[in-house]
UniProtKB/TrEMBL annotation, chain A:
Protein name, as recorded: General transcription factor IIH subunit 3
GO biological process, alphabetically ordered: nucleotide-excision repair; regulation of DNA-templated transcription
Function summary: Component of the general transcription and DNA repair factor IIH (TFIIH) core complex, which is involved in general and transcription-coupled nucleotide excision repair (NER) of damaged DNA and, when complexed to CAK, in RNA transcription by RNA polymerase II. In NER, TFIIH acts by opening DNA around the lesion to allow the excision of the damaged oligonucleotide and its replacement by a new DNA fragment. In transcription, TFIIH has an essential role in transcription initiation.
UniProt KW keywords: DNA damage, DNA repair, Membrane, Metal-binding, Nucleus, Transcription, Transcription regulation, Transmembrane, Transmembrane helix, Zinc, Zinc-finger
Gene responsible for this protein: gtf2h3
UniProt source species: Astyanax mexicanus (Blind cave fish)
UniProt family annotation: Belongs to the TFB4 family.
Subunit structure: Part of a TFIID-containing RNA polymerase II pre-initiation complex that is composed of TBP and at least GTF2A1, GTF2A2, GTF2E1, GTF2E2, GTF2F1, GTF2H2, GTF2H3, GTF2H4, GTF2H5, GTF2B, TCEA1, ERCC2, ERCC3, TAF1, TAF2, TAF3, TAF4, TAF5, TAF6, TAF7, TAF8, TAF9, TAF10, TAF11, TAF12 and TAF13. Component of the 7-subunit TFIIH core complex composed of XPB/ERCC3, XPD/ERCC2, GTF2H1, GTF2H2, GTF2H3, GTF2H4 and GTF2H5, which is active in NER.
Cross-referenced Gene3D superfamilies: von Willebrand factor, type A domain
Chief site of localization: nucleus
Subcellular location: Nucleus
From TrEMBL, chain B:
Organism: Astyanax mexicanus
Domain of life: Eukaryota
Zn finger limits (C4-type): 292-309
Name the record gives this protein: General transcription factor IIH subunit
InterPro entries associated with the record: C1-like_sf, Ssl1-like, TFIIH_C1-like_dom, TFIIH_SSL1/p44, VWF_A, vWFA_dom_sf, Znf_C2H2_type, Znf_RING/FYVE/PHD
Keyword line: DNA damage, DNA repair, Metal-binding, Nucleus, Phosphoprotein, Transcription, Transcription regulation, Zinc, Zinc-finger
Transcription keyword on record: yes
Pfam families per UniProt: C1_4, Ssl1
Length: 335, 393
């Protein structure tokens, strides 16, 4: 069991893209953003209550910014007592939970009120939220006391439609501090579903590799349609990928599948791992290919041989068959 | 001989007054100086970006480890050989992390001979296992630079032209015993475009200076163990490709990972091709794996070169790992904390800015603390704030 020195940090990345949520409200009015956030808060509270040393962070991922819902940079842990924060919730709830819930609610209200969607950028900036989550985890791990371990995970739940989609990313970063060595497991649960442009892809892959290097798990909870990128992320970092069949039961899935941390998962029967397609897409037609040609300079992939690389414009040497020297044939004598 | 300008040797310089570095403040504590020194140590690595220089991504590197008598010296704890092998394990892991489609081979030299410890391969496990086993070997005799370079050259000269051919020598002895003229060999190496670098453990040796200068490598002598580690890590990054390396399209396969469970009707257990050669692995029968798209031979891990048809098999994330070399992140601008007028919060980790300098990204003008700056440049390779501005544009 987790001892006093085990700290588990869960970072939840919530996707709050208003465009997608607006579309969703028209399709299925019974599952909207507030219900989703309720499920997230249930999960967050459960996590905080599991062990005294568990920590939490929640990031809202919007199409223009990523905002830390909890902990707020203007809020310090010592300010709980007194102040204008409605301390002492009337129903006897654990102080930490009530403060956290109120804070998150207020922050999300401010966030949705102040941002206006401009331009044609409609995709949620998942890579950016993940990058910030990683930096936060890195900072918290440096602030540990000596002898404490930290395990972290990021849970991302998002919609990952192939056009513009709302990404509901819940990044649960559970940091568990164990006394056996300073091992930090970061679990990044990222759920992403949408087509990304090349730059986003590269940033996303950079973030994934950084998470793998820091031993942070990324779990993904997809709400709408499958995402190849998130499947790769979960496969590379060792997290769980799940596509939820019924959105209204989100809280149930979160609690059953994503709440246990990495050590306990081996004891549980969890959804089987998904077959990840690691084939590359060629740069010219965006088809998935099994055999391709790779430019040695810029590493772009092509399905057919061409004399010039279209990305870096290098001229290639065409391999010609080697010239064979004519061998002198010995004349056969008659007898 | 050559007309290399003689730079001043270390014994020719003046005295270093190391006690003057530490300064006490009014109350007599050294805290400020110690913090300063720590801060400087963190920032010691200079982030030089190569700009638009072509880098050699597919590298074939031979590491030559000197196993002669001088490696039993105890100036590196517990002795030079153990310390070197341990750092080599770390180097191999980092190397394959940064260059996933490259290969490494290890050669040892002792007793006037040289022999291959491991062949050129793209899988780190084999090398790490061989390095662990080599810790128990004895060090005796003199090393032979000529023989070691010869063995490496025999394999490297057959490598295709678009890859970079490199040799890294960890040389601790001050002598070498060669069967033939080493300057001829240096000429041959230069013609074959093999770049040789040396890390010296004892002192500077003239023949190594000429060797590295002629072939275009670097020569450094270590000061202590942490300096040794730093010098090794310098070789992890891909070097700028020489102008004469050819660029070509390399044919590669991207196999699918077939996961089959026991309950599958069609799943048949089969041997992986890599198990045919190894003797100390288990039974080797597995249900799933990677099947070469050209000849359907099975492998358990990627990247690998198919033994049957010769096709290089990789997966897309392996190529993606090298992307950050192509688009390196610019170094951030350092400025003192007092000049910073905005919010005292780091925009990446939401922590308070407490260090004496803050770092600003030149592209998006967001402010980061020292820890985040190091983390971003070493591990993340992308600015978190720039991602948001890119997306929104």
């Amino acid at each position: 069991m987790a001892s006093e020195d085990e700290v588990s940090l869960l970072v939840i990345v919530v996707d709050v893209n208003p465009i997608w949520w607006g579309q969703q409200a028209q399709r299925e009015p019974e599952f909207n953003l507030s219900k989703c956030l309720d499920a997230v808060m249930v999960m967050a509270n459960s996590h905080l209550v599991m062990t005294r040393t568990n920590k939490l962070a929640i990031i809202a991922s919007h199409c223009q910014e990523s905002h830390f819902l909890y902990p707020n940079k203007h809020w310090k842990a010592g300010d709980v007592a007194g102040d204008e924060v409605s301390s002492g919730s009337g129903d006897g709830k654990y102080e930490l939970l009530s403060v956290a819930n109120d804070l998150v609610a207020e922050e999300i209200r401010n966030l949705m009120a102040r941002t206006q969607v401009k331009g044609h950028q409609t995709d949620t900036l998942l890579a950016g939220s993940l990058a910030k989550a990683l930096c936060y985890i890195h900072r918290v791990s440096k602030e540990l006391e000596a002898g404490q371990d930290m395990k972290s995970r990021i849970l991302v739940s998002s919609w990952f439609p192939f056009s513009s989609a709302v990404y509901f990313c819940i990044i649960f970063v559970q940091m568990s501090m164990g006394i056996f060595g300073l091992i930090i497991y970061y679990i990044l649960q990222v759920v992403k579903a949408a087509e990304d442009c090349a730059l986003q892809y590269m940033n996303f892959m950079n973030v994934i590799f950084a998470a793998q290097k820091q031993n942070i798990l990324i779990d993904a909870c997809v709400l709408d349609s499958d995402s190849g990128l998130l499947q790769q992320a979960c496969d590379i970092t060792g997290g769980l990928y799940l596509k939820i069949p019924q959105k209204t039961a989100l809280a149930q899935y979160l609690l059953w599948v994503f709440l246990p941390d990495a050590d306990q998962r081996s004891q549980l029967v969890l959804p089987p791992s998904v077959h990840v397609d690691y084939r590359a897409a060629c740069f010219c037609h965006r088809n998935l290919i099994e055999i391709g040609y790779v430019c040695s300079v810029c590493l772009s992939i092509f399905c057919n041989f061409s004399p010039i690389c279209t990305t870096c414009e290098t001229a290639f040497k065409i391999p010609l068959p080697q010239m064979m020297k004519p061998k002198k044939k010995k004349l056969k004598t008659a007898n | 001989m050559d007309e290399e300008p003689e730079r001043a040797k270390r014994w020719e310089g003046g005295y270093e007054r190391t006690w003057e570095v530490l300064k006490e403040d009014e109350s007599g504590s050294l805290k400020a100086t110690v913090e300063d020194i720590l801060f400087q140590a963190k920032r010691k690595r200079v982030f030089e970006s190569h700009g638009q220089v072509r880098l050699g991504m597919m590298r074939h590197l031979y590491v030559v480890i000197d196993s002669s008598r001088t490696m039993e010296d105890q100036d590196l704890k517990p002795n030079r050989l153990t310390s070197t092998l341990k750092l080599m394990e770390f180097f191999v892991e980092e190397y394959f992390d940064q260059n996933p489609i490259s290969q490494i081979g290890i050669i040892t030299t002792k007793n006037k001979r040289a022999e291959k410890l491991t062949d050129l391969a793209g899988n780190p496990k084999k090398h790490v296992a061989a390095l662990k086993k080599a810790v128990g070997s004895t060090c005796l005799g003199e090393p032979s630079l000529y023989n070691a370079l010869n063995i490496a050259m025999q394999t490297l000269k057959h490598m295709p032209g678009h890859t970079s051919r490199e040799i890294l020598i960890i040389f601790s002895s001050l002598t070498t015993c060669d069967p033939a003229n080493i300057y001829e060999l240096i000429k041959t190496l230069k013609e074959l475009k093999i770049r040789v670098s040396v890390i010296g453990l004892s002192a500077e040796v003239r023949v190594c200076t000429i060797l590295t200068r002629e072939t275009g490598g670097s020569y450094n002598v270590i000061l202590d163990e942490s300096h040794f580690k730093e010098l090794l890590m310098l070789h992890v990054k891909p070097p700028p490709a020489s102008s004469s390396s050819e660029c070509s399209l390399i044919r590669m396969g991207f196999p699918q990972h077939i996961i089959a469970s026991v309950s599958d009707q069609d799943a048949k257990p089969s041997f992986s091709m890599s198990h045919l050669e190894s003797v100390d692995e288990g039974p080797g029968l597995t249900l799933g794996g990677y099947y070469c798209p050209q000849c359907r031979a099975k492998y358990t891990e990627l990247p690998v070169e198919c033994k049957v048809c010769g096709l290089t098999l990789v997966s897309a994330p392996h190529l993606a790992r090298s992307f950050h070399h192509l688009f390196p992140l610019d170094a951030f601008q350092e400025s003192p904390l007092e000049e910073h007028t905005g919010d005292r919060f780091c925009q990446a980790c939401q922590g308070e800015l407490k260090d004496k300098s803050v770092f600003t990204c030149p592209a998006c003008s967001s402010v980061f603390c020292t820890e985040c700056d190091l983390f971003i440049h070493d591990t993340l390779h992308c600015c978190p704030a720039c991602i948001h501005t890119q997306g929104a544009s």
